[in-house]
Write the structure tokens for this entry.
Amino acid sequence: MNAKATPHLEFAPPAQPGAGRAWVVAGVAHALLFLAPGLATAWKTQPQTVQAEAELWSATPQAAAPKLQEPPPEPDPEPQPAPKPEPVKPTPPQPDPALERRDAQIALEKQKQLDKKKEAEKAEKLKAEREKAAQEKAKAEKEKAETRRKELEKEKLAKEKKAQEEKERDKKKAAEKAKADKADAARADALRQENLKRMQGMAGASGGENATGTALKSSGPSASYAGRLVGRIKPNITYPGDVVGNPRAEVEVKVSPDGTILSRRIVQTSGNKAWDDAVLRAIDKTEVFPKDSDGRVPPVIVLGFRPLD
């Protein structure tokens, strides 16, 4: 038997084993059920053939009794027709083991394909979930980096603003200091001019442009006091380098009544910062000025220093 001779649905369930024997047993059982009633009633159909008559005579004539009328025989029962045997259904063809194996192999292959499809769908779903998780992680990291960038930019702007404020503050302080230095320079110049006039007065000159008396000379320091101070300070000057020319550095010195040096500052630079600093250090090292011949110390005095004097 091949696949062309026996039509077989591809997805129909396989035939159950023993179906043919079941149909044969069922047919024999039905035939016996129909034959049993016929055999049980067959004895009533046989005909009765023996009949007898008798006559009686008597001495006196008597009227004969009427002839006994026998009841007519019962009609024979109609014969029951023999039951028709049920047609025996054809035994279904037995399934071919080769077809069963082929169907089982096909079903197994379909199941494998279905399993592969499910596995592929599962792998694709897992891949999509991983890609989604990676995208969310990358998005979170990007947002974190953007937040950090904004914070750094904000900190940078704050630092720049602070630096600008400090710069403006320093600029303001520098302007104020320059203004104060200018004012101090103006006062120092005025004092220097006054000291020069005093010194001129000590030398016999007039204390003022229109002065005619000697008050300036009698109230100022002695003629040799400035030279004494320069001579006291100059040994303390330490200047290892060579000075080009003979520049003059003028220093304003403020002194207490007992001669202690309170402050000093350059009122006219020599143009050589190293020489100016050396003069200031020497004044600091001197610490105390001696008193003048009249027992007093001028509160402010301007002294000049040249390297070659």
Remarks:
- The mean pLDDT is 76.
- The longest strand covers residues 261-268.
- The chain has five helices and three strands.
